[in-house]
Design brief:
- The structure holds 2 protein chains of 2 kinds.
- By secondary structure, chain A is of the alpha+beta class.
- Helix content of chain A is 43%, strand content 23%.
- Chain A contains 12 helices and 17 strands.
- By secondary structure, chain B is of the alpha/beta class.
- Chain B is 40% helix and 32% strand.
- Chain B is built from 4 helices and 5 strands; from the N terminus they run ββαβαβαβα.
- Chain B has a 5-stranded mixed sheet.
- The longest helix of chain B is centred in the middle third of the chain and has 16 residues, at 56-71.
- The mean pLDDT of chain B is 92.
- Classes of the chains: A alpha+beta, B alpha/beta.
């Protein structure tokens, strides 16, 4: 027995005595250096037993660790199924991880394909100044391929680094760090980020930690996928809400009931598409004898179109009450719309006034599909006017007067009617529209509108992008 | 929508093909035009011969292209407008604003 080992034996004997596995007397003899061979033999046997016990303990602790892991995963699973915010979930995951793999700092870093870098997304245990050192700002990032994190992302493989000071891939992000472990976060087959743990102790992590760490990385991936899905849902919902606002604006501006304007019978309908275009039609009572009739189509869809349509309606209604000539009204409306929008947004519109005392229609057409007066075999296009509105400044408009006759049907429409296409790509066209007006000329104006719209919808194939459909009719009974 | 550009003498020739529906696609067209103007281009011809279909938003693209060049002191002329586009230009009276030519050569020669 060497002099060096004697105190070690003594210490072991002392511990075993404390545990009641060895008599105090034997321990004392060992400490004083005059133990007899029997006492040494006893120490050996007891120690052997204790070693077996330690092996069992090791197994027990491994089982305990597994149980701990399972419990932790179960706990995280519960949180995942709740409606927590992604940041909150990532925090839960990273904090729970500590119960299984102890660390001093942890980070979730995500690949940014636009910049080809890995950006920090969630950090725990880093001081602000540590991170600032890396990039002079708090949100740090490293290029893919640089640093341990960049390496993991580039290769899609984990790293276990017992001593960061001797690993040449290592970039210092935190002063106290001595060892590090990192695994890739994988979504499908793509590396989307990295889960990284750092410790202030040398050799803190081992290959054995990779299993649970990989499981946690897959949990992170689930959270990220869910967050992405959630964001898409929210975007979709926001868009739908926007469209429903636009739809409400549009609907609120369309006539609910037709004014009584004998001997003329009025009818009109609008079928907005799901996307919401900017079709508009209006009957504006100006004086007991004068009725304004308008139809317009805003190029573009959604809220922008609805707002432009609102501007058109407001300015037209405002100007219609003035005593200006119709051509002047359109010039003023054009100037107003020009100031209100960018050039690619425009409106085509027709505005006219029917004087029921003199049975005269005065109108001006700003680039809109020409309405027609259907009179026996004739169809008179109402195309006098000028440029579409909103795109150009200082536009001049011309106006025309048409004497009306009993039995005249004036049909106003947007391109959703004439450009409706069937399965062969054929357009509905003006001729079909005029034929239907003639076919239904004995019906009331509203019934004519209803029948014709139904025919257009029956004609139209779902294969093509559909536009708003608007049709209105003024009929001299 | 497909856009290609080339230089013919001192004319910046843009060729549009496919369905012209404006919206997000038009960003590419506007960028090409902006870059050309930045390089000093002031005379542009837009070849529409390969356009299959155009809606009102597509028309908006033509208008803003025209306006952009005019605001820079330049001019954009149209070549080979299809029957459908021609009829859109007539209805909207844009025909009074745009100069149109039956062939690209005629449009190029008209400057």
């Amino acid at each position: 027995m060497s002099a060096n080992s004697a105190p070690d034996f003594a210490e072991i004997a002392e511990r075993l005595a404390e545990l009641g596995r060895l008599s105090q007397q034997t321990a004392d003899s060992l400490r004083d250096g005059h133990a007899n061979p029997e006492q040494l033999q006893l120490l050996l046997e007891v120690s052997r037993e204790a070693l077996k016990g330690a092996a069992v303990l090791e197994l027990v602790s491994e089982a305990d660790r597994k149980r701990q892991e399972n419990e932790t995963f179960f706990h995280i699973g519960l949180k995942l199924s709740s409606a927590l915010e992604p940041d909150e979930l990532l925090r839960t995951i990273v904090e729970s991880l500590r119960r299984i793999v102890d660390y001093d700092a942890a980070g979730i870093l995500l690949v940014n394909r636009a910049t080809n870098r890995v950006d920090e997304d969630f950090l725990l245990g880093y001081e602000r100044s540590d991170s600032q050192r890396l990039q002079k700002k708090f949100k740090s990032s490293v290029p893919i391929g640089k640093g341990l994190v960049g390496w993991v992302v580039q290769h899609g493989e984990p790293v276990v680094v017992p001593d960061v000071s001797v690993d040449e891939r290592y970039i210092r992000a935190r002063d106290a760090t001595r060892s590090e472990i990192a695994v890739p976060i994988i979504s499908g087959t793509e590396v989307v980020g990295c889960l990284n743990l750092e410790s202030d102790q040398l050799g803190r992590f081992s290959e054995r930690d990779l299993g649970p760490l990989r499981t946690f990385a897959s949990l992170v991936s689930v959270v990220l996928d869910r967050a992405h899905f959630h964001r898409e849902m929210m975007d979709k919902k926001r868009l739908e809400e926007e469209l429903s606002v636009a739809r409400r604006i549009q609907l609120s501006f369309l006539p609910v009931t037709m004014p009584n304007f004998e001997p003329f019978d009025l009818g009109g309908m609008n079928f907005p598409t799901l996307e919401v275009g900017g079709d508009y039609y209006d009957f504006i009572p100006i004086t007991p004898t004068d009725l304004g009739v308008a139809i317009g189509d805003v190029a573009s869809k959604g809220v922008g179109a609805a707002i432009l349509m609102a501007s058109l309606r407001a300015s037209l209604r405002l100007e219609s009450r003035s005593n200006y000539a119709i051509s002047t009204i359109l010039r003023k409306v054009n100037d107003f719309l020009f100031d209100a929008t960018s050039p690619e947004r425009f409106v085509t519109a027709f505005y006219g006034v029917i004087d029921r005392r003199n049975k005269v229609l005065t109108y001006s057409n700003a680039g809109h599909n020409p309405p027609f007066i259907v009179r026996a075999r004739q169809a008179i296009p109402l195309d006098t006017g000028g440029l579409l509105m909103g795109s150009f400044q200082n536009v001049g408009y011309q106006e025309a007067r048409v004497d009306l006759r009993p039995g005249d049907v004036i049909v106003f429409y947007t391109d959703g009617v004439t450009e409706a296409r069937n399965e062969h790509g054929e357009e509905f066209g003006v001729d079909r529209l005029l034929d239907l007006v003639r076919a239904y000329k004995d019906l009331g104006a509203m019934d004519m509108v209803r029948r014709i719209c139904r025919e257009v919808q029956r004609f139209e194939s779902d294969d093509f992008l559909q536009d708003d459909l608007t049709l209105s009719i003024v009929k001299w009974q | 929508m497909k856009l290609s550009t080339e230089k013919r003498d001192d004319i910046f020739l843009m060729t549009l093909k496919g369905k012209i529906m404006g919206g997000p696609e038009s960003a590419q067209f506007h960028q090409a035009l902006k870059d050309a103007i930045a390089k000093g281009e002031r005379k542009a011809v837009l070849d529409l011969g390969g356009v299959e279909w155009m809606n009102s938003s597509g028309l908006g693209l033509l208008i803003s292209g025209f306006t952009t060049l005019r605001n820079a002191g330049g001019e954009m002329k149209l070549a080979r407008a299809t029957e459908k586009i021609q009829s859109l230009l007539i209805i909207t009276k844009l025909i009074t604003v745009f100069e149109t030519h039956d062939t690209v050569d005629a449009a190029v020669a008209s400057f």
